[in-house]
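Reader question, answered in our methods column.
A reader sent in the components of a multi-part assembly and asked whether the whole thing could be modeled at once rather than chain by chain. We filled in our standard form and ran it. Here is what they sent:
COMPLEX SIZE: two components
ENTRIES:
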Amino acid sequence: MTRLLRLYPQLLRTGFAEAVAYRAEFLIWMFSTNMPLVMLAIWAAAARSGPVSGYSQEGFAAYYLATLLVRLMTGAWVVWEMTMEIRQGALALRLLRPIHPLLQWSADNLAAIPMRGVVAIPVAAILLYVARSELSHDWFSWLLLFPALLGAWLLYFLVQAIIGTFALRFESAASLFDAWLGFSNILSGYLVPLDLFPRAVRSVAMVLPFRFQLSFPVELMLGRWSRGEALELLVAQWAYVLLFLGLARVAWRSGLRHYAAYGG
Amino acid sequence: MRALRVVRAQLRASIATALQYRFEFAVEGALALLWMGVTLVPLIVVFGTREAVAGWTFPEMLVVLGWFVALKGILEGTLSPSLLQVIEHVRKGTLDFVLLKPADAQLLVSLSKIEPWRMIDVAGAAVILVVAFRRIGHPPALADLFLAALLLCSAVLVLYSIAILVVSIAFVAVRVDNLLYLFQSVFDVARWPSSVFRGALAVIFTFVLPLALMTTYPSLALLGKLNLHTAAGAIAGTLLFAAVARAIWIASIRRYTSASS
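And here is the structure of the entire assembly that came back:
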């Protein structure tokens, strides 16, 4: 454990240096995240003639800007890295290092967060200005936002890691993640606020893990929950995190037995 | 005619290559259907609350979405994979081999890699269009159909020209493969008719990055609402755009000095 505490900051520094080295590509990738703005366009047009189910134009602006912010701050791309390294045999090199490969990747993904901030901070500033009346007034919500964002990032990362380990067994793991992403776009509130869905869809979305990746931190920013409800949701989110952490460990261990270091 | 023969040979070769991976074909085809559903959901939710948005009813909006799905399939199924290969060629220096061949280089690279399963998008788009017109109640007039087909051709040409422009940048700044992804994600805006946007954005999406040309105008034509002046202007604009893109491509090829030398 102490060894890990010594090694991990170094991994973070390396990851950060890498993110800085590829800054142009990195920024372009971040600008490709524009779906919340595309969705905002249609809803803002729909709300021109008056609020839609409780959302005014500012309400939609607040929702989608917060969504964009959460998505920018909780990005992970480990599934593509894993599938590529496994296919090309570069994983062998990682396995030789005295630290768990999943931890190495997590450092890479975490270390990019300061760079993500470069894009996210202007978004946050616009959000604060345009939608100040729609944001939560309770400091407690904003306090909970930090563990909620960390939980959201962990969920996103762990799901990718779990699906990434499938690449140890068969080739189309990345496609599997694509399918997950399709469902996630709908059920996490990324495309449409969950409370605009019909009741049946909403009640399914409420119990699935997708919403804890995205819509939960967004709702904290918008002050949708009382303190008690927010705490309960945070506990539920971290229960999912622990569950996925366990699954990732199991999937990694059993997957590695199938690994045959192509070309290694 | 020689150009046509080259295109046909290119198409045949790249389809044959793609069909080797039959399992991938099935998986990617299923994914294309899933994503089509994901594209439809927000529209259905929006029109659960409103009769019309920005002057467009639900079936009319479906027509726009149909064009969008079809064009996205064409973009991501043929143009993007082929042009990503060009960027790879530039980086590795293997573009030399393409340039040595006795045919126009732009012709050779444009259809070099195809993902045929994305044609499911085009079929799905046709279904969406049929559903939309059944809801409208009457099929489009023959003349409108013809005009829409003409505008579809010009939409594909604009799309192709933008992609060629992006690739031309690759000759100057080598690491821009994700610039093509950026364009793909900006293209997502074309799923809405241009009247959804106001002010500066509306101008940008009509004249600077002509997304309105790609989905809004063909839809208006199909609905019989486009006047001929606008259509003529759109087609003239497209031809101009394509000519400029071609000129820039030729200029970039001239500057190309290979990676290894």
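What stands out: The radius of gyration of chain A is 19 Å. Residues 91 and 116 of chain A are 26 Å apart (CA to CA).
Send us your own complexes using the same form.
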